[in-house]
Structure formats: C-alpha cells, structure tokens
Amino acid sequence: MADRIGRVVPRYWEGVAAALFLLVAADLLTTVYAARAVGVGAEANPVVRWALRRGSGRSSPSTSSRSCCSSGCSTRSPNS
Predict the structure, then answer these.
(1) Residue-number span of the structural domain to which 19 is assigned
(2) How many domains does the chain have?
(3) Fewest Cβ atoms nearer than 10 Å: which of 21, 34, 48, 58?
(4) Residue 67's Cα: distance from chain center in Å?
(5) Is position 10 within any domain?
C-alpha cells in the first residue's frame, strides 16, 4: 500500500503543476488581450493594472514609447 502511494503522489503533483502552468498562461494571455481591447483601466486587480501600465521593461524601436500593449493604453517617455 505504501509503495503504491509513493508512486501516485509524485504523479499527482506533476498533474497539478501542469494544470497550474496552463491556467496561469491562459489567464495572462486573456488579461493582455482584454487590456488591448478595453484598456488597462478596466482591470479590477490593482496589482495587475499597475503591472500592465508599467509594461514589460523591454523596449524595441517600434514600441519604445508604448507601455503594456501596442494599442497604447498608456504612454511613457523613451527615457524612462
């Protein structure tokens, strides 16, 4: 019995980890798409709203003045 439990428990946690990975990724994508569609101000979670306004921290020549998404939910100066 203990041997069977020893085999089942790690498989259970592997399944939980895989499910959480997929759910968090899906939540992140839907949050970004919603921010692009209706704007960052519609986000109810203040921490996520702050993170979306702050942006990814990466800049490229085409999006250096944009924060959070290509629709320009908020803008910042290229030097910030």
Answers:
(1) 2-55
(2) 1
(3) 58
(4) 14
(5) yes
Query: Which residue, 29, 33, 27, 43, is CA-closest to 71?
Result: 33
Chain length of the chain: 80
Q: Which two tokens stand for residue 75?
A: 């803008």
Tell me, yes or no, whether 43 lies in a domain.
yes
Q: Which tokens is 65 given?
A: 């003045």
Q: What kind and span of H or E run contains 36?
A: helix 2-38
The answer to whether residue 51 is domain-embedded is yes
pLDDT tens profile 15-73: 999 999 999 999 999 999 999 999 999 999 999 999 999 986 665 444 444 445 555 55
Q: With 0-12 CB in 10 A as exposed, 13-18 as middle and 19+ as buried, what is 35?
A: buried
The two three-digit tokens of residue 11, written as one number: 């498989």
Residue 19 neighbours by CB distance under 10 Å: 10
Distance CA 55, CA 75 (A): 10
